[in-house]
Structures are given as structure tokens and as C-alpha cells.
Amino acid sequence: MDADPIYLAPADYSVTWPVLGGFIIFGLILWAVAIWLLTRRPDPEDGHGSLPPAALLKLRRDALRRIDEIDTAVRGDKMPARRGHHELSKVVRGFVSKASGLKAETMTASDLRERGPAHLATLIEEFYPRQFGATEADASSFSGSAAAARDVVGGWS
Description:
Layout: H1 16-38, H2 53-75, H3 81-100, H4 109-115, H5 118-132, H6 142-154
Helix pairs in contact: 2-3, 2-6, 3-5, 3-6, 4-5, 5-6
């Protein structure tokens, strides 16, 4: 029996399974990276803003000068009290942001209560009704607001 040997061609493998395996591995890597990013501790917001004493003095002096300018403008009827409260809030928040590294410029009052200094949160909460209230804030109450802003900026260490 002299039979010719039968030649069997190699089996064709479908490309579907290696591609599917690659997608599964890629998905697992993405899942691991997402879990790692979502469970990291947030960077401390208030620990990286320490300024040298001379820079803090200049920053404080500039903020106090700006508070005085706003107070003078409101008392001289050049600026409405509502806008004055907005400006005071911006000055105090900007000062705290630069002096401490705390992102006070974008924090809400509840964020400030949770993570910020208590005296800053109290001051900003006092400004809210005068800034956003239905009635215009009166200029007579503005001098107390300016004094409170000076206390926060002047007492910052």
C-alpha cells in the first residue's frame, strides 16, 4: 500500500480571540489606574503656602491698603455697599490664598467652615447677605465689615 502522504494545512486561528484578550487586558489596566486615582489622598491645601516674613508683610500691607481704598470709596458714595462687600471678600480671599496656599478664592462658605480658618469662614458668612441679599446693603454697616476684614488680614500669621 503505497499511499501518498496526506498533507494537512495548519489550522487557521481567528483573530477575534487575541483582540478580545487585548481589550480585556487594556480594560483591566484602565480599571486599576482609575481605582488608584480615585482612592489617593488629596494633596494638603494649607501646607504649601508659607511665605517668607517680608513677603507676608508686603502682602498684608497691600491688602490693608486695598481695604482702606474700598472703605473710602463706599463712605464717599463712589461705590455701592454691595459692591464694596464683593470687593472686600475678593481682597480677603485673595490674601488668604496667597498667604496660606488655601484655595479660599474658590471655596464656598461651607468649604471654609470645614477646611479653612474659623475667623475667615465667619467673615465670609457675614458678607454673604450683604453681597447677595434681596435688599441693598446700607453704607453705615460697611465700616464694621471693613474693620472685620482688617482684623482677619492684620491678625493673619
